## 1
Amino acid sequence: MNNDYTTLFSFLSETEHSILDYFSKSDLLSILKPDDIHDSVLSYLQRPAKRLRPSVLLMACGCLGGEERVEFAIPAAAGIELFHTWTLVHDDIIDNDKLRRGAPTVHEAMSERAKLTLTSDSNLAQEYGRDIAILTGDIQHGWSITSFIDCALQMSVDPMVILQLVRHLQTHVIGNLVYGEVLDVQFGIQNAVDMSGINEEQIVNMLWLKTGILYEFAGLAGALIGINAANFDDSQVCALKQFTSHCGTAFQLQDDILGILGNEEELGKPIGSDIREGKKTVIVFESLKNADVDERNIILSTLGNKHASADAIDEVTSLFKQLGGINRTKELAEIYIRKALPHLDEIPDSKYKQLLILWASFMINRKF
Amino acid sequence: MNNDYTTLFSFLSETEHSILDYFSKSDLLSILKPDDIHDSVLSYLQRPAKRLRPSVLLMACGCLGGEERVEFAIPAAAGIELFHTWTLVHDDIIDNDKLRRGAPTVHEAMSERAKLTLTSDSNLAQEYGRDIAILTGDIQHGWSITSFIDCALQMSVDPMVILQLVRHLQTHVIGNLVYGEVLDVQFGIQNAVDMSGINEEQIVNMLWLKTGILYEFAGLAGALIGINAANFDDSQVCALKQFTSHCGTAFQLQDDILGILGNEEELGKPIGSDIREGKKTVIVFESLKNADVDERNIILSTLGNKHASADAIDEVTSLFKQLGGINRTKELAEIYIRKALPHLDEIPDSKYKQLLILWASFMINRKF
């Protein structure tokens, strides 16, 4: 595989430019009131991000519809970024996360602002932060649907394509995303420590529910807008959908590796966060499986310990490498990319297909 | 005005039957997983409720489109009930409410269930309840949009009508609803006690943002589906929209009166809840305006006091009557109904128009 990602990065950057431009022209901006809602709705969107989901949507669209239709799909690309964003805002409340993309999460930022402007009662301020974050996600959810609709109203995409796509997003995709999120929360409570009672397949399925499904939707939406017909059974559409679905799972597996090995700047959160949060990953599962009693005790005493020292984090990180947790995850990610690539065989060659191939390679080689 | 509501109640009951039937046939039911999500998404929908918003949507539709088009609008009626429902689920988290329609709120019910099935840690159980409630609202939000879309996909309503309506719902309506909710939360924190710095107009505007706007949308959506054209400027469409908007504000004013004078069964929550929560209403505002120093002290020492005694609640309730708070609110509700009715002048007579007139009367005479 080609490891020169220059053309991919340049496409990601064009996508970012296009969707930020679309956001900046939205009639929604004028009804984002009061200021705390306005600022919160825009905050994650304005932070540096890779914009992978909208880019994949545009690439899939280009594969079947060419250059001109990619222009038509820009509101949908903005829509999938917004959809992803509201799930992040609500997940951050659920996970009690304090940082996202190197800056405070919405609930955290608004809680801090409330302390300065609204109340000296820190419990009230915390509730206020949570309230604003819930409502921020709700508005972004609405804006996401509006953006998809704009493909029909402003870009002359067939209204039936948009209606069917939004319906699919609002039933199948949201249902599975929420299912994955709840399983994750329940695992976190029930198996706070040793991951007993879960197997590797279940962990990977949870990754797919939480991440793969939205990449799958990116491929599907781009493909249908590309052919401008609501033909969900079209073989090329299905091929692009399967391809992006598998790559999405690989993305999350690689994300879990970077969550252990990445540095603070790359992660946007402190080193060791995933370990201190006790995040349930294939890395942890595989390492525990291969650990002796002493190693197991070291891992279990650090995992999920919010106050674990930097030395303890280092030790567990080393164990994850030695015990094969990192390697097994890397291997799985590669398996998913290998499963994904043959689906592209029936897609005609184009610069967009080459971008998708490059993106697949980036999924398992990326360091950020 | 006619005060025999038999035909109105029979229409509300038909609406309830139609939308529950629509829900029961939804393909979404099979993807509501796990059980906690399935049960939470359905819980408020299955509790006894008046179904005013979907009924108003169907009446407005019937006014301009007649009997046959009312059938076509049933998925949209289900959609507005779902939209209202997700806002209730999220509002209940924000207001820390424990009861809704006579039974535990979603976050409360799921927190209690978690204590039995997931964890003995009551903080973790409470967080779990909150998490499930956030995600429940998110799913209902999606299902709401899906239902509107079904009007086009299953009922041959013009796709452009549905796209424009959903766009309006997801920008204008959601933006104003959230604005009203945040103002309410901010008022609650900043003016915990004496309502200084707020005037009557601001309170009524907040009622409109939180309640009137969704009734306005019910009128608009029904009217546009009735004419089956996305003609937002049509004078009859605008008339129905204005009519339902004003009646919606009257509905909320009457709701505030019932919140003080209603009994537990009618309220679905304990007597005095609105006083103990310190709810900011025209009743409180007007009463404080007319109170002498002693009366003011009595009101302020009870309002917002979660542990206020039954005697204190009785005393404040009496003061709200004596000081004109109840009467002023009743008067305002009547003013809004009087503003609403002339808009119906340009709507041709029909059983649906008669139902809307009856509904307007019910808004200010209802006891539940």
Note: The beta strands of chain B are 99-100, 103-104.
## 2
Amino acid sequence: MSISRAAVQELVAPVSEDMERVNEILRGQLAEESAAVRDMTDHVGRFHGKQLRGALVLLSGEATGNATDEHAAVAAIVEMIHLATLVHDDILDGAEVRRRVACVNERWDNQVAVLLGDFLYARAFALSTELSSRLCSSLLSETTRRLCVGEIEQSNHRYDFELEQSAYERISGAKTASLYAAGCELGARYPGGNEEVGAALAAFGWNLGLAFQIVDDCLDVVGSTDVVGKTLGQDVEDGKVTLPVLVTYERADARLRASIRDVYTSPDIDRRAERLREVCDLGPGVEFAMGRARTLVDEAKSQLAGLPETPARTSMESIAEFVLTRNW
Amino acid sequence: MSISRAAVQELVAPVSEDMERVNEILRGQLAEESAAVRDMTDHVGRFHGKQLRGALVLLSGEATGNATDEHAAVAAIVEMIHLATLVHDDILDGAEVRRRVACVNERWDNQVAVLLGDFLYARAFALSTELSSRLCSSLLSETTRRLCVGEIEQSNHRYDFELEQSAYERISGAKTASLYAAGCELGARYPGGNEEVGAALAAFGWNLGLAFQIVDDCLDVVGSTDVVGKTLGQDVEDGKVTLPVLVTYERADARLRASIRDVYTSPDIDRRAERLREVCDLGPGVEFAMGRARTLVDEAKSQLAGLPETPARTSMESIAEFVLTRNW
């Protein structure tokens, strides 16, 4: 087990037993009679990941004294939706297919990855319709819509160096923070009522999720592949102008701005990220972005102020802090 | 308006007013604050298509005396799920990207097409959670899962000339007939109860949908592009061995079988369909497949026998017949 995995397990200790139930539900949902489908779900089933979203559903339930027998299913549904978005994120564009053939999609082609993601969404929605309350179906289908809108807008703003920070945060929030917010809200409210506490926990999730995304964006431009363990520099390759780059660009003079734009559209796509680090000092932009993430984490933690001091609440505060220091 | 469009409108005449409400709901669902999203949904909104699935929800409601105020929303949800599958069907594989660059996905790249389909699914599920009964959410999320499994299995059986007819029908049924079946069942049962009539109407939809798919598969190998109005020969290009080809192959001698396999894997992909028609006489295979479609249509119609004679029932019988004679 890697260090980061062990660290995450310690962070979610108050709900570790329930997380086993979540994973049992997930295994059951991914089991499918069709051998062709099973072969694929077996594979994605191993993409355990950090499962922070699912754990936060349970922790929000514990921290607000609202845990129910159905919380594990809600957490599993949130994790399945997240898994579906991951599978669909791996769909390659025409241009990317040509340059990244042996990368993410080597096991199956695009079409099958699309179908597998659809299958995971459908499973998630089907499971949510079996729960006693409709709050989970309605909140998560609405969240999925928001999530797609965020991703579409992000795609639409590729190569947009004039993007305002507020627009960047709105889009990144929709793309990433909305599922954290919905998971925490469901943890605090499911099966219903409790709207005020739900709103506070949704705000916790939103701020935490947005901080998570900003840290992700910083790691993508200045992280080390060895440490982070995934291909970095992808945002630059894909033309995504994230907060650290937006700030660097905003503060640059006309000549440097032109160089940055040139790097983003350089035909030598594989070297774009490296060249970006060569043409400009990303340090101050990353520092600004990490400062913003710090503020968001503080804001997230302040939302828990009204809750009793429990191991679950402490765990949520630690997760928020961990988002800032993570290097994976 | 094309002749086929006028013909379809006449077929669905008993519910034409309600179909306007369905389209109003669809327009509302596709409207989205984000300009980037709206630009895309405007575009798919014009892909009206035949809207047979939606019309059959309404007709099943009328024919069984079960029409409610919510049937138009159910029909809109069924159409949105269908639209999502169409958008995702257009996602190209790596190999296809290279040879069909200017085809289906010329307006947006693969990634955005994935997100748009996801958006449509999410919208459909979100709308279904707003209905008074959960029958629609639960039946349609389960149907969406089946549909994905069918598509995945189909992809898994590419180039499989040993596929049994029963397996072909199971897969084509899951892929295409399941949504017709669910729509007709919902029309007859929504918001609940009425299970026996629901089962009969589901069987109507299943048989009709499977016949529809078989006719589609025949048109793909022997139709004329001018008449059908879409690119044909795609199944052969994609390695899909459909019923008319399976039968042709089964009846062929060893030499012809080898030729057929060669055509399917020929590097000159654009000419595969044409070459298939050159190396073998597809006539008897198509005739067999159309005979099977005829049987399915009769089976579909027999499911309506217990219903009172109404314009809606007559319309459903005519739609079933039309499936056999359509050339679009």
Note: Chain A has one domain: 3-325.
## 3
Amino acid sequence: MTRNEVTDLIIANKLRKKLKWAQLAEAVGYSKEWTTAALLGQMTLTAEQAAKVGAMLELPPEAVTQLQVVPYKGSLPTTVPTDPLIYRFYELISVYGITIKQLINEEFGDGIMSAIDFSMDITREPDPKGDRVHIVMSGKFLPYKTY
Amino acid sequence: MTRNEVTDLIIANKLRKKLKWAQLAEAVGYSKEWTTAALLGQMTLTAEQAAKVGAMLELPPEAVTQLQVVPYKGSLPTTVPTDPLIYRFYELISVYGITIKQLINEEFGDGIMSAIDFSMDITREPDPKGDRVHIVMSGKFLPYKTY
Amino acid sequence: MTRNEVTDLIIANKLRKKLKWAQLAEAVGYSKEWTTAALLGQMTLTAEQAAKVGAMLELPPEAVTQLQVVPYKGSLPTTVPTDPLIYRFYELISVYGITIKQLINEEFGDGIMSAIDFSMDITREPDPKGDRVHIVMSGKFLPYKTY
Amino acid sequence: MTRNEVTDLIIANKLRKKLKWAQLAEAVGYSKEWTTAALLGQMTLTAEQAAKVGAMLELPPEAVTQLQVVPYKGSLPTTVPTDPLIYRFYELISVYGITIKQLINEEFGDGIMSAIDFSMDITREPDPKGDRVHIVMSGKFLPYKTY
Amino acid sequence: MTRNEVTDLIIANKLRKKLKWAQLAEAVGYSKEWTTAALLGQMTLTAEQAAKVGAMLELPPEAVTQLQVVPYKGSLPTTVPTDPLIYRFYELISVYGITIKQLINEEFGDGIMSAIDFSMDITREPDPKGDRVHIVMSGKFLPYKTY
Amino acid sequence: MTRNEVTDLIIANKLRKKLKWAQLAEAVGYSKEWTTAALLGQMTLTAEQAAKVGAMLELPPEAVTQLQVVPYKGSLPTTVPTDPLIYRFYELISVYGITIKQLINEEFGDGIMSAIDFSMDITREPDPKGDRVHIVMSGKFLPYKTY
Amino acid sequence: MTRNEVTDLIIANKLRKKLKWAQLAEAVGYSKEWTTAALLGQMTLTAEQAAKVGAMLELPPEAVTQLQVVPYKGSLPTTVPTDPLIYRFYELISVYGITIKQLINEEFGDGIMSAIDFSMDITREPDPKGDRVHIVMSGKFLPYKTY
Amino acid sequence: MTRNEVTDLIIANKLRKKLKWAQLAEAVGYSKEWTTAALLGQMTLTAEQAAKVGAMLELPPEAVTQLQVVPYKGSLPTTVPTDPLIYRFYELISVYGITIKQLINEEFGDGIMSAIDFSMDITREPDPKGDRVHIVMSGKFLPYKTY
Amino acid sequence: MTRNEVTDLIIANKLRKKLKWAQLAEAVGYSKEWTTAALLGQMTLTAEQAAKVGAMLELPPEAVTQLQVVPYKGSLPTTVPTDPLIYRFYELISVYGITIKQLINEEFGDGIMSAIDFSMDITREPDPKGDRVHIVMSGKFLPYKTY
Amino acid sequence: MTRNEVTDLIIANKLRKKLKWAQLAEAVGYSKEWTTAALLGQMTLTAEQAAKVGAMLELPPEAVTQLQVVPYKGSLPTTVPTDPLIYRFYELISVYGITIKQLINEEFGDGIMSAIDFSMDITREPDPKGDRVHIVMSGKFLPYKTY
């Protein structure tokens, strides 16, 4: 059973059992963002967490074991994503990439925003002209080490 | 004078005159994020805005005119960005792409977060363990039209 | 059962039962363009719509469920399509892309034509020199938000 | 003087002289769509047409000559366009490509919509919820020859 | 049963039954070039033609049905073909592409040679210094429509 | 002076002096196909041939010398050609590639059609339904050597 | 049974039966280089040769038949080979490619070294500083035909 | 003056002064293969060698200095070479790559043929059926270190 | 059973039997780095080594045999690795590539660091500010042979 | 003056003035690895450091200013490096990538080795069988944040 097959099984069973990502996150004890990523093969669960979601999703033991193994990450089938929802984020990097770099470097100096010591929060922002997707990202600034 | 040459000139003169993006944004009257993107060839200024930043940056009239023209957008030289700061954002899409899609679709239904009716705010988040880059994105949810 | 397998099954059964896309669209209650896209894994049906086409196409319950899930979109196997019919549309973008951009930007200012708040109508245009394919596209103009 | 330099010159002079594509099209005697494409290096003008727009745009004789030569076509710098306005059309092909093929083949049999015996009309469609871009495409259906 | 599986079955059965493409073409009633393309998943047979070759090749009913459906075209697994015989044709386009364009445009004006209203004939050309492959291509010239 | 600059100069001067490829071919003493390819940087002229076309095209001595040097071949700027006229030939290989291979291998055995010991003839084929482009290719069959 | 499956079977059985390529070549009656290429799906055996190696390798009749069919050639899974042994040859072309071209063209004029009328011999070259791989390639020079 | 400009100058001056690569190699004191590669920007000359060829080719001092600097290697403009002469070598790797690997690994065990401790000799092999290009490659076998 | 299937089986069984790479390396008698690479299909074991790890991992005889065969190397599914841990090494080459080349060439002259006569050691480097990954690479310098 | 032009100037002047990277590093006060990367456009100098190396390398003021600006990083012209010395490092990632990941994850858990809080030391390792390149890399382990 490959990790991709575990992911497919999770999606299928979640659908069948009408579970929400937030419910699974509650069982795991972390945010819905981190938990969803973990269940989609991008993060690593502890034995206890894996057992809990395994029970909720009726996963076989082999799948529960796999959820505790560090996965080979990267969730997209193509270099430039074809799905319109995901592409919009790629487009934001394309349009705003140099802008983001200029502003972070001007404020912090040479370095990066970590994608590892990182958290994200996605919520609905009510708006009379149409609700908005509200995303907060927080990543530790890592200055380039000099040596 | 091509638009890329205008961008190069803006970066060089900004450097020489020791201006900050936030100062230029104040003259334009919009956020530092939007203004930086505009000056880097991704958004379009009004005649008045272009005149103001043109004066601050000592741009020739031809460059001031070009800032008022809708540019061909996309600021990166390669499909997968090589600069580590920008790459981290590409990596976030790669690792979290499907997660973001699952959460937005579960909350809003089928549709996308607009990258056009969109704003972004980048700030420093003080943290005793090392300051963090704090990014807030807000994009209108656009449901797929049925017809 | 993956979404691609659902799509293959729909195409096979439609062929076997000699159904037309327009007949399926009638059951769904939307246009033949939207319905075909939905059945080919690009749009999302309601439970009622899925049940109706599921019955017409003799789909198993699992497939009927999948039709109600937001799919990962993008229907083509290669970045540049090899099928001549579809390639002609890619060619139109290649030849007319900058033209379309110039004309829309000149008329509307900086922004895009939405591909989400969008509808399309494909009909036969009789012509003594050979009938023509007549396509009408209508997408909401979205101006770039300034902030 | 290469054809790309002619195109750059046309865009620069059009900007400086504040001409609209529709005004240039009137001089050429064809639609704004065809004329814009021609001036952007995708179609071929007659000597008379080239002389007229050359005068309006104050082009040197060498540029006027080049406008009468069949160009090497294709107006985009990358395989997948980065400009958001143009990308939306690429996305429409990605999402609707198979749908378009199914509907045309079902109606007309095996063949293509010509991108050569083709015309396009782009207009503003007033709409209280926000004006729309209205595009009509008409291409001759070409059945695959059997032999 | 996918179209690729139909193609594999045709090749396997043709081999087993020691049939020549020309014999299958005779049954279809068209040239060996068109018939081979059709049986390899690039053209569409009528019900009668499909029944005839189905019988000769002992194809199951499902395969016979598939031969009557317009296929997704494009027969090569890579953008640049690796097979030496097929690559030589790609090389001819690479070396002679601009030449062909110059000569056709000089003779006919702006337009293309149709790849749809097209026929091809491949024969052996006896030659004392070594027989030659003789290929005749005939495609309708399609002038760019002006409008 | 690079070979590309020689090619650009030839095209520009041919245009200015209103010469046809067939006229230049007559001076060279070979077909219009081979001569055009040579002048576009794909074949190699003798000193005498280079001098003749150099005079007709008013080329500087350096360019005349370059025409006698074996060029680095390949005339197209992208792997998949964007120009519609040239793309149609790429499409023919995509659609008919396996067909051509099957028919040549069935007739000649394992080997290729040479693209070196090769000639091509492009003519206008009058047709009441619209003139056709008629292309005859002749390449020596080269069987795979066994050893 | 696809050709790739035949190749896999040959490699597996050769391993199990502890046969050397040279032994199989002896049965075929050609060199170890040509025979290995043939058994790996790049050349075509006669019925007699196929029967002999089929017996040695205990291949099923279907595989023996396939070895007599001209294969779709090209043995590598990626455009730039990842295997270090094979990559070194790619690197030699990258580093020495223009050198080889210059030397062959200077000696022979415009043309190529045939990869069809070609033979190769790989042997061990004893050397006190470490044995060397000794490869001799011999390909017919093919001058570009003028016409 | 970049290294590419040095290479262009060497090719131009060699052409103007009608020098052969073998004559330059004699001055350098190495083979024509190594010397040609060095002058085309792939190997590094000593001061004495650079001075000698600099004098023969009338290179400026800056170019003579550059010839003594280790270059960034790789002589081809595209991943898959378009020039037919060079492509044939790429094709040989594609067709024979796995064969070469099998034979070297069977004879020597796990390791590679060095492309650094490597020499090559290109000569004309007279043949009544047409002269042949004869290439001898010799590379040290390097076994994979175990540790 | 393909080599990839052997690799999958090894990873699954190692997980099930809770073995560490270092334990497997002890059985093999080499370092954990070399052994892990070998078990992941990049190096070649002796019969004795394969038997030992085969017993520990409960591999079938066929898998034990495959571990003794030289594999087709290259362990990553994409040209640019998507996994963040592995990507960081790709990024180091991107950022430091020319630096490494300059420093090695300045110290050693023209040549390379061997990736075959190579060893690597990965250890934990305790650090109060957070432990570090400590990697030592040692590769034989190979000077370019002159000839 | 672009950053690439600054880099070219630094390389040219370093060559002309016969400076070693270690000498420039001494002036900067950091290691030769960091300093070389900085001068090749990958790191950022302080005003004082830039002034010192500017004086040593006789750089114009504009170049000295640019050395203090955070650069757009990535030093290689192609995705897969063509230079053999640099390619060997790419190959090591290809061959050992999964091995490195397995060993780091097994030792540290889920996370990465930082390429930002990172240092590298390249030295000559004398060896009677041929000196070796010795590279020590040290990067902080960054565990994936859970949230």
Note: Helices of chain C lie at 3-16, 21-28, 32-39, 47-57, 61-66, 84-108.
